[in-house]
Amino acid sequence: MSDSQRNIRLLIAYDGTDFSGWQRQQKDRSVQGELEKALEKLHKTYVPLTGSGRTDAGVHATGQVANFYTSIARMEPHRFIPALNSLLPRDVRVLEASEASLDFHARFDAKSRTYRYHCVCGRSAFPHELRYALQLWRRPDLTRLNGYARALIGEIDCSTFANPQDPSESRYRHISLAHFFIQGDTLIFEITANAFLWKMVRSILGTLLFYEERKLPLEEFKNLILSKDRRLAGPTAPPQGLFLHKIDYYRG
Amino acid sequence: MSDSQRNIRLLIAYDGTDFSGWQRQQKDRSVQGELEKALEKLHKTYVPLTGSGRTDAGVHATGQVANFYTSIARMEPHRFIPALNSLLPRDVRVLEASEASLDFHARFDAKSRTYRYHCVCGRSAFPHELRYALQLWRRPDLTRLNGYARALIGEIDCSTFANPQDPSESRYRHISLAHFFIQGDTLIFEITANAFLWKMVRSILGTLLFYEERKLPLEEFKNLILSKDRRLAGPTAPPQGLFLHKIDYYRG
Predict the structure, then answer these.
(1) Cα(B161)–Cα(B173) distance, rounded to whole angstroms?
(2) Which of A74, A88, A235, B121 has its CA 20 to 30 A from that of B154?
């Protein structure tokens, strides 16, 4: 980048329903692709966008973070919000835009990622909820769920919740928060880690609900984590209930 | 109908985004049309469905009520819920099904209709909210809005909020509830009347926000109602924030 460039940090929300995921694809509609198309229209040249990480097809975000270098000199950072939103489809929105230090990197500087998974419990879900939540036909035992969830906290080998083909060098992740809470008729699972393996949150959530429904003892869940055997875990929960909620950074 | 027929009452929710409205159309996708298609598959013959009233294109429902006559004798009423939902697209859901008296009529027996209009206030809305709410860039004055809203309560000539082509014989409607309240960052306008004119709720809401933004005196709003002149009212609010919330009946 030249000296005249500025580094702009964005806070982004999207409805993942109609996307193949965050990552730019040759053919399929992606969130990164739509944002880069808008950046290209604004700059009259291709401008790459760096996200904090990928989200899968169908997964939503209320707190994705990304950065790009702009050669536009005379524009207040917050002016990028309406400028980009006017060029973006309705299912992607820029919520905030700010000037970052030139070496800020949305992915490498991220300290932790927080996801939330929404479930509608014990009643028929409305269609406008089904798009953004998993329907549970029962009201799960919150105490039991939170008992299992506490067992996830710490530096753990997450192989039990990893895809067998996961190419990550290490499957150790530091999980700093994992709990369930209720908002109205919605059960929310919140989990924070330094990073996640592919489909890990959905695999964990599916397993927690599977164990809870069968009232399995906490020790059995702890043994499951230690087993590192994906085949013993529960089903992977569908993507529509999952939101990338927040990215925390080491600095500003 | 024959003696062997039963009258089934449904509680229905839908995401109005991809519908031309409630009413069956020759070509366009309608909620009534999708439900009648499901009823036809279940009965192997056309079964008409009577709704409590129409909703416009893009308007949602969490509490629409409808009834139909079925010749299916040996089926618990609640069994119609999964039977119909398995035949319905994801954006229409049957929430409840019950046996009604043979002369129950979802439209003629309705005592009142309640609508809710959702606005996201004072911040960028998330894409998953924009589908179901109007974005207001400011936080409106709740006290002022509720002052105007109270002036709507009673037996009033609603011509100010009617489409000039509205074919209704009388434009008098009995409004029994009209108020705003806040839930989190969402401003909700709730209004109950014996019946509504075409686009009346959206016209009222658009006008209330228009008056509030300009801090116009309450007397001016009262005079507007008396004027019966649609041209003096504010803009019609868009459909995506509007939900048919509840139908109350004279009996059962």
Answers:
(1) 11
(2) B121
Q: Which residues have a Cβ under 8 Å from the Cβ of B237 and sit 6 or more positions away?
A: B117, B134, B202, B203, B205, B206, B209
Rounded CA separation B195/B120 (Å): 27
Overall size of chain B counted in residues = 252
- The structural domains of chain A, ordered by start, are 6-100 (3.30.70.580), 110-249 (3.30.70.660)
B56, B11 Cβ separation under 8 angstroms: no
Check pLDDT > 60 for residue B78. Answer: yes
Min Cα–Cα distance to chain A from B155, Å: 33
Shortest Cα distance, chain A CAs vs residue B129, angstroms: 9
Nearest to A91 among B81, B92, B127 (CB): B127
Annotate A114-154 with DSSP letters as a single string: EEEEEEEESSPPPHHHHTSSEEESS---HHHHHHHHHTT-E
Residue B28's pLDDT is: 94
The reply to whether B141 belongs to the active site is no
Residue A214: enclosing H or E segment and its boundaries?
A: none
Residue B118 pairs in a beta bridge with: B188
Distances (CA, A) of A180 to A142, A157, A246: 7, 22, 16
pLDDT of residue B74: 87
What digits encode the pLDDT tens for the residues B156-200?
Answer: 999 999 988 888 889 999 999 999 999 888 999 999 999 999 999
Q: Helices in chain A by DSSP H: which ranges?
A: 31-43, 80-85, 127-130, 142-150, 200-213, 218-227
**Strand, coil or helix: B32:** helix
Tens-digit pLDDT profile for residues A198-232 = 999 999 999 999 999 999 999 999 999 999 998 88
pLDDT of residue A184: 80
Q: Which residues in chain B have Cβ-Cβ distances shorter than 8 Å to A123?
A: 95
The overall pTM is greater than 0.95: no
Decide if B13 and A93 are in contact by the 8 Å CB cutoff.
no
The residue ranges of chain A whose pLDDT is under 50 are 1
The size of the A-B interface in CB pairs under 8 A is: 60
Amino acid identity, position A51: G
